[in-house]
Amino acid sequence: GESVGLHLPTLSVQEGDNSIINCAYSNSASDYFIWYKQESGKGPQFIIDIRSNMDKRQGQRVTVLLNKTVKHLSLQIAATQPGDSAVYFCAENMYNQGGKLIFGQGTELSVKP
Amino acid sequence: EAQVTQNPRYLITVTGKKLTVTCSQNMNHEYMSWYRQDPGLGLRQIYYSMNVEVTDKGDVPEGYKVSRKEKRNFPLILESPSPNQTSLYFCASSPNDRGNEQFFGPGTRLTVL
Questions:
Q1: Which residues neighbour B85 within 8 Å (Cβ) at sequence distance 6 or greater?
Q2: Contact pairs from chain A to chain B, CB under 8 Å
């Protein structure tokens, strides 16, 4: 069925370390995968997306990796900062359903100073 | 300032009393969407609109209505609210018709007694 899930609900890292947040998906028809960040009391904020025909995409301090063989998506944050503490969601945009998005449940990232 | 606004931010109502949550964006975005966020369930899409007069169901459309008469506004209507619609609601807009990079509003906390 259609689902986007996360391996770990919480992740705690030391400031300055790299963070890796994982996401599994089940729908092979997906076209785009997107990562959002949600800080406490705020709406989600777009971080980065990757099209299904790509394996890797880099942004500012973030890298998204897509492994279609095992239907796995990850978000890597370099030199994690306290301001990175938030809940991170992966989302799936399915090609055959236009603008419909399905979100995963989220991973809470906690950065220790 | 480019933004998505929602009103009201907080609402407590009773079962069966019709209500409307307004959403407006000033970025001339084609795509708009409504989500609800519940603990343990993440963000679930209610309805989305890829353009004026075009709306489509998301994952959880039951009990909700929307309209898109003009580009900037996308109100969410609950004709007969029930307690299971108690949730945190987010409106979002996107500059592309696939809805990948979405800008979210601040959220509306709805309680139905």
A1: B36, B63, B78, B110, B112
A2: 69
